[in-house]
């Protein structure tokens, strides 16, 4: 990419006993690195129930996420990460832009909105036209999400990041006009998500050339 596009990591801990709030800024995100939904968003650390947070983090560190989802999580050394808190002015949630890439080529977008209120998972083709064929059965979706300002840059980054893989989902955020990498996901939803359209499995499967 020519630069670091990841959200800055402030601290990495091996266990909850290493956490020292005095060395952290007012706002941050603290999470485990070996699963999903193992995160705590801290907008004001003076209001954080640290004992409760430590209980959650300890439980997550002791969880083998591979038993519920992607098998490769078992091999990840478990850590606690503290990242910079990021937000877009006037909005309570970040929009999550995810590019599904096959053999190094982005094929369609998944966009997640309203995560902390009424989560919606929507899909768009590479011309940013709503593509309901990819929508998931158990989630609401919307057809009027604005195209990200850094659309072309996200596609460029995704092509570079996906070049070495048969299939990968490349996730981005657009924060105050800057693109940040969310993560690379190799087995989204453990391959078990059910689509609203029964033809979606074949349509997506045909994108993969082995």
Quick summary:
This protein is an alpha+beta fold and 210 residues long. Helix content is 14%, strand content 27%. The strands form two sheets. The chain has a five-stranded antiparallel β-sheet with strand order 7-6-5-8-9, with helices on one face. A four-stranded antiparallel β-sheet has the order 1-4-2-3, with helices on one face.
Q: Span between N and C termini?
A: 27 Å
Which stretches of 5+ consecutive residues score pLDDT under 50? none
Q: Specify the biggest β-sheet.
A: 5 strands, antiparallel
Q: Which CATH architecture of the largest domain would you pick?
A: 2-Layer Sandwich
Average pLDDT, to the nearest integer?
Answer: 93
The total of helices stands at: 3
Work out the helicity level: 10-25%
Neighbour order of strands in the largest sheet:
7-6-5-8-9
Number of strands: 9
Structural class: alpha+beta
Please state the CA-atom Rg, rounded to the nearest Å.
18 Å
Strand content: 25-35%
CATH class of the largest domain reads: Alpha Beta
The coarse silhouette is globular
Please render the helix and strand layout as text.
Layout (H helix, E strand, L loop, with lengths): L8 E5 L14 E5 L6 E4 L7 H12 L18 E5 L11 E7 L2 E9 L6 E5 L26 H12 L4 E9 L2 E8 L14 H6 L5
Antiparallel strand pairs: 1-4, 2-3, 2-4, 5-6, 5-8, 6-7, 8-9
